[in-house]
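Sample intake sheet
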Amino acid sequence: MAQDQPLLKLEGVSKTYPSGTEGSRLPVLSEIELEVAPGESLAILGPSGCGKSTLLNVMGTLDQPDAGRVWLDGRDVSGLSEDELAAVRRRRIGFIFQAHHLLPHCSVWENVLVPTLAGGGADGPGREETLARAERLLKRVGLADRLGHRPGQLSGGERQRVAVARSLILGPALLLADEPTGALDRASAEALGALLMELNREENVALVVVTHSWSLARLMQRHYELRDGRLGTFRMAAA
């Protein structure tokens, strides 16, 4: 990928879903244009039900647009097979959701290593490097003393920090976060927001956050609003 080339580019992306009326479609995304540079951060705000999560899913190749193209690393991923898309997601994209989706019967250590198992990562070439990275990430998010704990033994903020470490274990170039602080109390939300920004810089990972939280959005470099299916720049008021 050329240095001046965007990491992620959405070009005329539109998406509809079936509505209650037979044969009709409800527009959710309309001709979205967006570029995300390597290592930058941006927030997407908008009212509930406006399609923010759909947009994030399209960015992450979890959903396909009805029209338009999605480019990642200069490659048009819109026409890739499911197996090819799975490989792209595994190596290039990390995901954080409002619900942490940790495996309840696995330890913190095991949960962080889950993404490495699909391609034999933890047991194949680079195993020692993978384990060292897991240890470093868990120390970085403040959980070095919780490696053997299960999710039920952790606070909400700690569980979300495990999810952050898991999302970064394979060294993605793009990190997509859907309401990452939505289920947390204020103190935990502020701590997680600060941590995400620090990791954005330290890992040089592009960060796209969908959020209702103005305090989290303000931390990002760029701000957008999704309304009536269209994405526009959003000017944050001074704090």
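Comment: Confidence is low (pLDDT under 50) at residues 120-125. Residues 8-233 form a domain with the Rossmann fold fold (CATH 3.40.50.300).
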